[in-house]
Write a structure and sequence with these properties.
mainly alpha; elongated
């Protein structure tokens, strides 16, 4: 009877460890699902690596699942190259904050209040440089 309990406990521990090491990013951080790129979370990668050291197949599965789900990436660390919603509006020179607010409101079709926003004006040398600069600002800490 004692051997049965011991073997049951060993089996339960092995199943628990295997499940934890398999796709641990998916288990630990389910809210990260759907990310396609970014900086790799060292903690998740280390746990997946431990799975590779001790159990080759679960470790490989853990990396595959975490990469395919995107849970291995740190949140908000991806530079999105998708600027399909980016619009360029020619507005002339030296807009006042009120004029800028009215222009944005007209473009969006809804009222915008910039009084509390942290707005900074930057001059772009050309239209092609706007997208990469916005990507830098989106990923800034």
């Amino acid at each position: 009877m004692v051997d049965f309990k011991r073997n049951t406990m060993k089996a339960a521990a092995m199943i628990l460890v295997t499940m934890h090491l398999s796709a641990c990013g998916t288990i630990l951080y389910p809210e990260r699902k759907g990310q396609t790129s970014g900086k790799i979370d060292a903690g998740v990668a280390a746990l997946n690596g431990i799975g590779l050291l001790f159990f080759l197949v679960p470790g490989v599965i853990a990396f595959a699942v975490d990469f395919s789900n995107g849970t291995i990436y740190l949140p908000n660390s991806a530079a999105t190259g998708d600027d399909s919603d980016l619009r360029v509006v020619q507005a002339g020179k030296n807009l006042t904050p009120d004029q800028l607010q009215a222009l944005i409101s007209a473009e969006l079709g809804q009222e915008v209040d910039l009084s509390e926003a942290q707005v900074r004006a930057e001059k772009a040398p050309d239209q092609a440089s706007i997208g990469p600069r916005l990507s830098e600002l989106r990923t800034a800490p």
